[in-house]
Design goal:
single chain; alpha+beta; six-stranded antiparallel sheet
Amino acid sequence: MSETWPWEVTEDKQEEPEPVPYELNTTKCGNFLFVGKDKLSVTYNNSVTTSGAHNNDVGAIQANNPVPNSRWIYYFEVEIKDKGADGKIAIGFSDADFKLSRQPGWEKNSYGYHGDDGKRYHASGQGLAYAETYTTGDVVGAGIRLGSQEMFFTKNGRLFPTAFRDVRLPLYPTIAVHSKNECVEVNFGAKPFVFDLEAVVAKERQAQQDAVESFQLPPGLVHRVVQQYLQHYGYSGTLAALEASSSPAPGSEQGNPRDFLQKRSEIRELILAGNIDGAMEELASAFPEVLQDTSLMFHLHCQKLIELVKLHSFQEAIEYARTHLGPYQGQDTLHDTTLQEVMAVLAYAEPAETPAVSHMMGLGQREAVADAINAALLKLVAPDASTQGPSVSRWLPLEPEPVGVKAPMMVLLKHLGLTQQELREATGSQGEVYDLQRALTI
């Protein structure tokens, strides 16, 4: 339909890609390490006299960008090139205020998995038993399930249990070295990971989908929702096929006013085909009371003007505007603004290719008018409906506000989108943005 919902990202509203970590931040790093020219390899500074003897001579460094918000999982890996004297290497995450002379996990808002003891650390110098130690030749990884706010670690492609929960961004990938000759190399994804991240994401997506599929719906509910959607928008042919291919659903309504549905369907098809004169003739014949709504007539006349411009009948369009739209001029500010917007299509030889007015030349514009007329017709048979009546006070379509009476399916989808949006906000806007189109194509 011709609505844009707040949880959807359309092509013309595509946001800039989030910055992602791709190298180490050499402008802000500890004094006890050396960073290679590739900005991915790190070696402990052996010239330091204490050489790892104290807790404040750690060589820590963060990635150049924080963890991106809108992913299922963020993950990176570190290969241990040399465990050095003591293997006091650590991998994890920390915030922007982290002290780079300390191990990740020792400070507030930092998390770490340490190689010398295999323990996990968070905001404390006392670690908790977690996994195995790691040494030269091992590849360890750190990841965050952003939606569930869980942090995990891996070793040589094996996934360890969840290490920390309630993990809040912003955080930076962080590594540290703390004894002579320790040397590591970071992989932010420029080359394949040892850990099969894609398989894990696919498995977790499938588990989520299986949980959705296992949810039991009341008998006949899907049939009724689809049936009501088709009735609402006047898709009589599809509705007839649906009813012919299935027995009546439990609780479904009988005795639908098929002639009313058929007439609404015919009027809608005329508008979608650009035949505004035909649509107004059908309305005048079958539903003359609808044409008493001056706002509806105004928008029908506006659409007729646009259809003439599409045919390059510019002179006829000018005459039509003078005769049918002129009387609306000066009635109110909204009509005047709309007239100015619509009349702008006459200023361009090819308005469909002109960004300033092209949005009025497509099918979406016809759908907006058809929806408004359909909503007005529905109000004839349900004047006391709890949903709002036709909203046609604005000419430009494709606005977030629904146009007209809402079909039950549309209400359900909007509730679904809003619920997903609020769930993401409850986690600090971490995790993937809900994509309704993808969810419906799984």
